[in-house]
Amino acid sequence: MAYDYDDTNIFARILRGEIPSTPLLETVHTLAFRDIAPQAPEHVLVIPKGRYVTYDHFFAEASDAEIVDFARAVAKVCAAIGAEAHSGGKGSRAITNAGEHGVQEVPHFHLHILAGRPIGRMISRD
Ligand code: 5GP
Questions:
Q1: Residue 93 in 3-state DSSP?
Q2: In the prediction, which pLDDT does 87 show?
Q3: 3-class DSSP assignment, residue 124
Q4: What mean pLDDT do residues 6-20 have?
Q5: Whole-angstrom Cα distance, residue 49 to residue 28?
Q6: Closest atom of ligand 1 to CA, residue 105
Q7: What are the pLDDT digits (tens) for 44-78?
Q8: Residue 64 domain flag
Q9: Distance from the CA of 93 to the center of ligand 1, in angstroms?
Q10: 0.90 surpassed by pTM
């Protein structure tokens, strides 16, 4: 499976430092920053630094080190924003949109972490 990565996408530009973001956490392979149009009191995007279009692309082709780094970064973000679903925390929802049917706007794999209020039901039917 070939994935065409567009180097001009907005998250590639954030990674290159061409446009600003509000970072929460940066590791060797991963960056987490706040969504520019938050849909919850806490709305964080976690992205790999590598050139991956979607979650299936990332999980198919990223190295073990990139995948572990990404997963640990997600956990650290949840802790940082008080979104744990244990130890008294209220929890969160993690969403990743992929491709046309997933209604993906930015073609660089990103995980949305939404928290800080009840997030509602999982999907709409429209
Ligand atoms: P998607 O629909 O691709 O899953 O979500 C893309 C997300 O990126 C949207 O929630 C949108 O608000 C966010 N976004 C788009 N442009 C920017 C930007 O320049 N900076 C930040 N921080 N978020 C952005």
A1: strand
A2: 78
A3: coil
A4: 98
A5: 8
A6: 3
A7: 999 999 999 999 999 999 999 999 999 999 999 99
A8: yes
A9: 16
A10: yes
